[in-house]
Structure formats: structure tokens, C-alpha cells
């Protein structure tokens, strides 16, 4: 399956990697820590809807000053990226993505930032929030590495894999420092050379319940604002709130009418690959170059389904745009989510989605197949131009 092959390239290259690069830590880490330290501040969270407000109340850190501290870190990196050329050496030292995860399970997330733009030479920095400040905990190489949760106990998993070797390391946060334990290592090269159908051991078989942790683009701080909602959906037993659904304006023809009458949508990139063209007519979604720089246009719409993505009881519309040419042959080159908000219809754009199903209550599910050894379950949060995808436990 072509899209799952791409997912394998993304997760197995941004994932699994025992032969990770072995660069040394940056000598400026101490200065970066001092510059990153910020004073505690009041909550800057934003609720997109009533369900999100309720979710935020269920899992609420005792001190939400971490939001201001982490946002200032990300914004400083945004300014740095804007000031350098992608062709410069300095660009390779710039942030690419970040994730939030409560490593020590104290109800306040840690911030992990990935630096660099080459898979083999990525570095990461972990920050924790303590004494009213964002404090640097560690800096280390993270080439060919993905991050996974450790359910219900202190820790985060670094799963590294490259060229037939894999290594799973558990990092525990204690007293502002990390301690490491190697949980698993393997070399499958002999099996591969013998012609066996060998693959890396799934993370969930090493640590039951471990979940792939989604990384967010450096261009948005919205995931930090919405951390409580992410944590609530990621908590054990949490389900989407709605049990019955309707269409916008109670009109089952709402989305069909928009498509057939070439209505206006406000198109926004949901990932770093897609364009954000803003307000365009619906038909331009399938025309050359509007939603993706290298899209030749002429793609057909397929796989239309309806799902309540924000747990308000009203369906959003999910569909795919196919691409069949000399370079691509897939019905799912792009995904579009149509979501009415404040009198406008927003169209959230994703590149080469890999989910097998979209549930009625808003989960995007990818089942294990071939080189994809993990069940991946995701949700989407959005508020007009702000949006992101996040992972939840695979049992959802």
C-alpha cells in the first residue's frame, strides 16, 4: 500500500534507529538555558468549544505558567529560523519540530525540541518547567529516532532504528535530570540477509500501551495552548464526548451543496508540506499548485465521509484527493477536512494521509500492515487558522 510505505519512511526514518548519529552536545546549552528561562505567568490556554473546556478541567496542571515559558522558547526559535537562509550552516542548527509529554507524570508536560533538518544529524533538547522557569534538562543526538509514551509511570521512550539495528531506551526524569535504561536492542541484518521477512519489534511489545508521540511544526504554538485537551484524550479510558450527530445547520446537504455550487473555503495547511492558500473557491482544491506546490491538478475527490472531530455533535466532512500521473498513483494524495466555523468553512489540508479508517466520533486509525508494526490513532484539533494533529493511545 503506497501511503503506508510512505508512513514507514516517515516513522521508520524519524523513528527506530539503533545507529543514531553520535554528535556531541552543543557547548551553548547553558546559555540557551539561561536565555530560555522565563517567569511564571497565568494560564494562556484557549478553548475551542465547550467540550474542550470540560476536558481541560479534568486534567489541569497546578501551575500553567509552563505555557508562557514554552511558547516563548518556540517563538524565539521561530525568529531565529526567519533570520537565516535555508542554505546556511546556521539553518541546520535551527528547530524543526517539538513535542509535549509529561515525562515524570506530575501533570505538567516536558518540552522536547528537535533541531536540524537532516535525519542522521538531528539533536534534541528536553526542557522541564520548575521554579517558574523553563529549564534545560538534556541535550543529545536524536537521528533516526521516534518518541513513545510510557503509560502510568515516569519515563519516555526513545526508539532508534537504522540499517537493520534497533534500540529502545527509557529516559526517566528525576530531580531535573534524566536517567537512562536500555530496554531492548536487536540486529535483524542476518535474518534479512537470509531472506527472512524480518522487521523491528513493535514498541508496544516492549512496553505495553506505549503510544507514538506526535511532533508539531515549529510554526505553531497552538498545541501548547491546548495541552490539557491533548492530555485528556490521551488519558486512559477517555472517549469523544458526542454520542449522536447532526449536520451543520441540521442540513444533510450542507457539504454536498458547498461542493456542487463551488462555494468558498478558507484553506489552511494541517502539516508542513501543504500550502495555506486562504479563501479560495472549492474547485481550486483540485487545481494545479494551489494546495501543494508540486500538485499537477486534475485530482478526483473520493472517500467522502463524515466525522465529529471536535466533539460538538456536528459532523465535519473528510475526503481525499487522488493523484494519478507519472509520479504518483494513489486515491489518497491529500486529505481535506471541511469544518464550518463562525460563518466560514475551513478546509484543513494534509499531505499523503495514511489512515485506514475515520471513525464517526473523530479518530483517524491506521492498522498495522507490512512494515507498519504499530496501530496509530490520531485526532485533529482546530480553531480557524490554528490546527494540529495529535496521537492518542492505540486502544481507542
Mean pLDDT: 82
Tally of alpha and pi helices? 9
Q: Strand portion, in percent? A: 25-35%
Count of the separate structural domains: 2
Overview of the molecule:
By secondary structure, the chain is an alpha+beta fold. The protein has 2 domains: 2-234, no CATH class; 248-362, no CATH class. It has 9 helices and 19 strands. The strands form 4 sheets. It has a 6-stranded mixed beta sheet with strand order 11-10-15-14-13-12, with no helix packed on it. Strands 4-3-2-1-9 form a 5-stranded antiparallel beta sheet, covered by helices on one side. A hairpin with a 6-residue loop joins β5 and β6 (156-162). α3 crosses α8 (227-234). The radius of gyration is 21 Å and the shape is globular. The two termini are 23 Å apart. Mean pLDDT is 82; it is low at 1-60.
Brief account:
The chain has 396 residues and is of the alpha+beta class.
List the helices and strands and how they pair.
Layout: H1 2-13, H2 29-36, H3 50-58, H4 65-82, E1 95-101, E2 110-115, E3 123-130, E4 133-141, E5 145-149, E6 156-162, E7 165-174, E8 177-187, H5 189-193, H6 203-206, E9 216-217, H7 222-225, H8 227-234, H9 254-260, E10 264-269, E11 278-281, E12 301-307, E13 316-324, E14 329-341, E15 344-351, E16 357-358, E17 364-366, E18 376-383, E19 386-392
Parallel strand pairs: 10-15
Antiparallel strand pairs: 1-2, 1-9, 2-3, 3-4, 5-6, 6-7, 7-8, 10-11, 12-13, 13-14, 14-15, 16-17, 17-18, 18-19
Helix pairs in contact: 3-8
Signal peptide: 1-20
Biased composition (Low complexity): 46-59
Biased composition (Polar residues): 34-45
Amino acid at each position: 500500500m503506497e501511503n503506508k510505505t510512505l508512513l514507514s519512511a516517515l516513522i521508520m526514518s524519524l523513528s527506530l534507529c539503533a545507529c543514531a548519529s553520535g554528535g556531541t552536545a552543543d557547548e551553548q546549552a547553558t546559555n540557551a538555558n539561561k536565555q530560555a528561562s522565563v517567569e511564571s505567568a497565568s494560564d494562556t490556554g484557549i478553548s475551542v468549544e465547550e467540550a474542550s473546556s470540560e476536558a481541560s478541567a479534568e486534567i489541569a496542571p497546578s501551575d500553567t505558567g509552563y505555557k508562557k515559558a514554552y511558547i516563548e522558547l518556540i517563538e524565539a526559535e521561530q525568529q531565529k529560523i526567519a533570520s537565516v537562509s535555508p542554505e546556511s550552516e546556521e539553518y541546520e542548527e535551527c528547530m524543526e519540530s517539538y513535542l509535549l509529554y509529561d515525562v515524570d507524570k506530575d501533570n505538567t508536560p516536558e518540552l522536547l525540541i528537535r533541531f536540524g533538518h537532516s535525519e542522521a544529524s538531528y539533536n534534541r533538547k528536553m526542557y522541564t518547567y520548575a521554579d517558574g522557569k523553563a529549564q534545560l534538562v538534556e541535550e543529545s543526538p536524536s537521528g533516526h529516532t521516534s518518541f513513545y509514551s510510557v503509560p502510568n509511570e515516569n519515563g519516555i521512550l526513545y526508539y532508534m532504528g537504522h540499517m537493520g539495528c534497533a534500540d529502545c531506551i527509557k529516559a526517566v526524569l528525576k530531580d531535573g535530570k534524566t536517567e537512562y535504561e536500555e530496554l531492548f536492542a536487536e540486529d535483524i541484518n542476518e535474518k534479512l540477509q537470509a531472506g527472512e521477512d524480518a522487521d523491528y519489534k513493535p514498541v508496544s511489545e516492549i512496553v505495553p500501551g506505549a503510544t507514538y508521540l506526535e511532533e508539531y511544526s515549529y510554526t505553531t504554538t497552538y498545541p501548547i495552548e491546548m495541552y490539557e485537551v491533548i492530555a485528556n484524550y490521551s488519558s486512559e479510558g477517555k472517549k469523544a464526548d458526542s454520542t449522536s450527530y447532526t449536520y451543520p445547520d441540521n442540513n444533510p446537504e450542507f457539504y454536498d451543496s458547498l461542493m456542487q455550487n463551488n462555494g468558498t473555503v478558507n484553506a489552511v495547511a494541517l502539516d508542513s508540506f501543504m500550502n495555506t492558500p486562504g479563501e479560495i473557491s472549492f474547485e481550486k482544491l483540485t487545481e494545479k499548485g494551489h494546495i501543494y506546490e508540486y500538485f499537477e491538478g486534475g485530482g478526483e475527490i473520493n472517500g467522502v465521509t463524515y466525522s465529529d472531530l471536535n466533539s460538538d455533535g456536528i459532523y465535519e466532512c473528510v475526503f481525499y484527493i487522488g493523484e494519478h500521473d507519472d509520479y504518483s498513483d494513489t486515491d489518497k494524495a491529500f486529505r481535506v477536512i471541511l469544518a464550518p466555523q463562525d460563518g466560514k468553512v475551513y478546509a484543513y489540508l494534509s499531505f499523503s494521509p495514511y489512515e485506514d479508517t475515520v471513525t464517526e466520533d473523530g479518530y483517524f486509525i491506521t492498522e498495522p500492515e507490512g512494515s507498519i508494526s504499530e496501530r496509530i490513532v490520531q485526532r485533529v484539533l482546530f480553531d480557524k487558522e490554528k490546527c494540529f494533529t495529535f496521537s492518542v493511545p492505540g486502544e481507542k
